[in-house]
Amino acid sequence: MLPVTNLKLIAAYLFVAFVSGCITIDFDQRSLFTRRDAGGTVPVDSLNVKFHHASKIQFPTQDNLELNGVILTYPDLDSTAASTRYIIFFGGNDFLITQKTIDIFDRIRCNILLFNYRGFGDNPGVPSIRGIVRDGAGAHAFLTKSLDFPRNRIFLMGHSTGSYVALSLAQIDTCGGIILDAPFTNFTDLSEDIQKEFPSYWKLLYRINFEHKLFELDNLSKVKQIRYPILMLARENDDFVPVSRVKVLFHYTLSREKHFTTIKNASHNTIVDIDEYTEAINTFIEQLN
Q1: pTM of the model
Q2: DSSP for 90-131?
Q3: 3-state DSSP assignment of residue 172
Q4: Cβ neighbours around 278 below 10 Å, total
Q5: Domains and CATH numbers, the chain
Q6: Burial code of 215-228, b = ≥16 C-beta within 10 A, e = fewer?
Q7: Residue 138, Cβ neighbours under 10 Å: how many?
């Protein structure tokens, strides 16, 4: 039980909040993107890569930013062979390339392009919803134009917020398939799910004012227009994007070739069984060869 003094303070605070009204918290795009500096990044020549060859790349965006990334080349593949595939990975709202990231993607049996969004790591710029889509388009253009890689052999893979980037690009360009990891339906549902995690009394004290641009994050409307092969990965213990939400998104996907997998014991930002995760991706890609 709380001490009487603490109870009195809480009661007093509740009374003040009730009299003065709710405290408004502004949540905008700056709040969405948890910018991280280069302190967490690993130099390419220091990466511990077992199955791939890692090389650093730079590519421009449509608004003239130069972004850094990494290409993991799978050595068993001939870059001219029909079976060769590339994954472009679009991370979540706080994604940063780390050794832990490399350890996961090193187990995927194809070539992979990873990059940090603008404002993350040592990249210039300020992250925004439209900005990260431009970043994704720049990575895609690097493969298709600079490396002359066929569009229909590129898989667009997004985790969380990155699922919006993947679907946005699939709407405007050709791809071989789409992989969505913990994808939300739309920001309306996402904001509701997040607020459910707070105690009921919290709503008496605070009101969140969401920036209107955040509601551009709408995967549900996008999947209704896309017919590429698609794999959706839900995470069993995900508190931000529940499995039920991913199933709704899957239901409305128009693709005739769609697959759904729930990764056991995984939370939104943590994967316990890496083999289960990577094998789901490998199986999906290889069955499309």
Answers
A1: 0.88
A2: E--TT----HHHHHHHTTSSSEEEEEPPTTSBT--S---HHH
A3: helix
A4: 17
A5: 34-186+219-286 (3.40.50.1820)
A6: eebbbbebbeebeb
A7: 20
CA angle 138, 139, 144 (to 5 degrees): 95
- Token readout for 104 is 């996961």
Rounded Cα gap, residues 36 and 95, in angstroms: 8
Give CA separation, 151 vs 43, 95, 97, 133, 194, in Å. Answer: 29, 25, 24, 17, 36
Q: Digits of tens for pLDDT over the chain (289 positions)? A: 444 444 454 444 444 444 455 788 888 898 888 766 655 555 666 788 888 999 999 999 999 999 999 999 988 766 666 568 999 999 999 999 988 999 999 999 999 999 999 999 889 999 999 999 999 999 999 999 999 999 999 999 999 999 999 999 999 999 999 999 999 999 999 888 777 767 776 667 777 888 999 999 999 999 999 999 999 999 999 988 999 999 999 999 999 999 999 999 999 999 888 999 999 999 999 998 7
Residues 6+ apart with CB under 8 A from 137: 61, 62, 169
Dihedral sign, CA of 87, 91, 97, 100? negative
Q: Tell me, what amino acid is at 73?
A: T
Distance CA 22, CA 55 (A): 52
